[in-house]
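Two proteins were folded this term; both appear here.
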Amino acid sequence: MKKLILALAIFFFLSCKTNAPTATDDITAIRTILDQQQKAWSNNDLESFMAGYWKSDELTYFSRGRITKGWQTTLANYKKNYPTEKEIGKLNFEIANITQINADAYWVMGSYFLTREVGDANGTFMIVFKRINGEWKIIGDSSC
């Protein structure tokens, strides 16, 4: 009888699947957002590119030795620094590392490459993704 109960317990334990996302699921979701951002940028659609960012005044962006705060400010800076398709060009990311910080946060390190009429540009970035209301959003970006 004990063997039967133990066997049933093991069976139920192994057959129960959790709906909690795995690290693999999280990384896939983050890569999907980055892919969507590449496409949006390359289509001259900065608003769609910004959909990957946390739409909050607390969004933090660090570049060129200064910190700026806020989703709207970040969008305005992108529009100012990339006013036309000639400056925007085509974007490609090369992801070097995606590392879990905790169950609801990851940091991503990589390089970006802009192919543009006004001259190509490239650099590195480190961004922090956080799960907010079930969605992954960039809450911090440091690019140079």
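Next, the second protein.
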Amino acid sequence: MSRIILLVEDNPSDEALTLRAFKKSGISNEVVVTRDGAEALDYLFCTGAFADRNPAHMPTVILMDLNLPKVGGLEALRRIREAEATRLIPVVILTSSDEEEDRLKGYEIGANSYVRKPVEFNQFANAVQQLGLYWLILNEPAPPKNGKSTKHET
């Protein structure tokens, strides 16, 4: 099973830049894109448009913007951390916000990392490459609670 990246991004330009940066960095993992916090939660909890999704195929990492329609990034993060099935999935806040309050709230709620989006593409591509290398290759995800081992490939 490949390691899935869940990208929660409402800005089409930032989505395209992120996908382009993954491609440029040689990160070929499946990327599931949701465009607001509600859609991300539907994906994670197999509800709404994702009711038929196999709940065993969870993302290895979630890259989440903060300023999202319907359900904001911090609220989505709170719900992710409250649920047993998703509480251990690493969540990286990937945002243009430089507000200390956003960073503090993100970490308080349970973000694993907070990355400010660089404005220049090459810097952004480098940041995405480093995120991908760390979360998809170097980081060892938490083992499933049921004790069954699942091997992941990149």
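The domain at 16-138 is CATH 3.40.50.2300 (Rossmann fold). The chain is about 40% helix and 15% strand. These notes refer to the second protein only.
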